[in-house]
Amino acid sequence: MLLPLAGIRNRYIHMTADRIDLTLGLVGDDHVLSLFNIQDDATLKLKFQSIAPDEWVDAISFKVKNYGMVGDCAFDLLNKLDGKFLEQLSSLDYAILCIGTNDILLHTPLPDIVNQIKEILKNLSDIGTTPVFCTIIPISKPEFKDVVVDANSILTIHCAKQDIKVVDLNLIFNDGEDGLDPYFDIGDGIHLSREGYMFLADALLVRIQEIIIREYQEYFTQE
């Protein structure tokens, strides 16, 4: 049978023998790729299953895909959103978007960063995939702090208006002064340590769990 979920635009999740198959993809830059370098697909899948409520163990099957690319900017990702790559992303139920850090490091104008990320989110929604926007992780360099804050503020407001789910990575990695928490910093104020990536995986899993639970509650409340 097919079960429509409230928060997934124009999509249906296949249920076979009472099991729901969910496909999640992490899309973005170095943060995404490094996350998978530390934990492979199988490990991440197990983490999704272990962090889910007990009643999900036999009911939901998770498939996790990696679409991270070293050095990718929002402009690069936006240009790839056609043809086969867009077709691959259309198979996802959720696309977790982590992008923007490289744009800021390259001094891309703020309006360009914001508009390109908005367009990526729109593209994902248009193909029936539920986008989940991750705020840009803090950068501990004075010349970049304000841009990160401004970009996150504008995009968070946009997501609220468009009913797009958000994972506030900036908040959980913030040192309280809009820099990267030293505990999660390899020392350059930009890249996460191994502990940082483990924490990133857990934060994403917890937030996705919250999103899925809410969607099911909304759906079954309507029944």
What does this structure look like?
- The chain has 223 residues and is α/β, with parallel strands linked by helices.
- The chain is built from nine helices and seven strands; from the N terminus they run βββααβααβααβαβαα.
- It has a domain of 156 residues: SGNH hydrolase (Rossmann fold).
- Helices cover 50% and strands 17% of the residues.
- Helix 2 crosses helix 9 and helix 3 packs parallel to helix 6.
- The longest helix has 29 residues.
- The protein starts with a strand and ends with a helix.
Write the layout of secondary structure elements.
Layout lengths: L1 E2 L9 E4 L2 E10 L1 H9 L2 H11 L8 E9 L5 H7 L2 H7 L4 E5 L2 H5 L4 H17 L3 E5 L7 H21 L2 E3 L1 H5 L20 H29 L1
Parallel strand pairs: 3-4, 3-5, 5-6, 6-7
Antiparallel strand pairs: 1-2, 2-3
Helix pairs in contact: 1-9, 2-9, 3-6, 6-7
- Would you tell me the structural class of the helices and strands? alpha/beta
Q: What's the number of extended β-strand segments?
A: 7
Order of helices and strands: EEEHHEHHEHHEHEHH
Top CATH class of the domain at 26-35 and 67-212: Alpha Beta
CATH architecture of the domain at 26-35 and 67-212: 3-Layer(aba) Sandwich
Q: Could you estimate the helical fraction of the residues in percent?
A: 40-55%
Q: What does the average pLDDT come to?
A: 82
CATH homology superfamily name of the domain at 26-35 and 67-212: SGNH hydrolase
Which percent band covers the strand fraction? 15-25%
